[in-house]
Amino acid sequence: MGVSAFTFKDHLIDSVRYFSAQRVPSAIIVCEAFLSGALDVLIALAPLYLVSIYVDVKWLGLVLAIQQGADLVGSLCAPLIKIKPTHFFCWDYIISGAALLMVFIVPWIPAKVLAFTMGFVIIGISGNYFSKMLFSLYDHNRLGSVDTIIRALYACFGIVFLLVPNLYSNITVLGIIFNALTIVFGVILAVRIYVIRG
């Protein structure tokens, strides 16, 4: 049992070291996990947001249908876009972050719906590019351990963010903060890819 425990620990350390060594794609994965957790809590608080802008909660189903439809459109459009996976994500964060930020700062409801739709079309495209990035930039023999790390990151950020409403539940402020952070992540990633790496 002692040998098995040591082997597991050794494998875990090796997997984390390998993941950390892939700097840009692994940084993107951490950002994706963080932003996924943030998005989960915003969707969970959507009924409160509808109430705050004087929209009947009965429209929540339509909001979620628009989200799913936009995500589907994005996934269908993804094969038509030709850009390196790592390069795509900086634009993903900037555009989707700006679109979803508009949802919380623009008062006109049709404009909110349009921005919401645009944001989730980009998010739908990013799902396809996420898979491309994994298969093109990681050793295929290590994808199992990379997938384990990804699932752990998503679960941890998901749990942390879903606890946020217990401390603070103003969805408008949270939406502005989380989407502003998304834009910041995109700008930092763009600088790293286009400027620092030349």
UniProtKB/TrEMBL annotation:
It comes from the Bacteria. Coiled coil: none annotated. The chain crosses the membrane at residues 27-53, 59-81, 88-109, 115-137, 149-168, 174-195. Keywords: Membrane, Transmembrane, Transmembrane helix. The keyword Membrane applies. This is Major facilitator superfamily (MFS) profile domain-containing protein. It comes from Parascardovia denticolens DSM 10105 = JCM 12538.
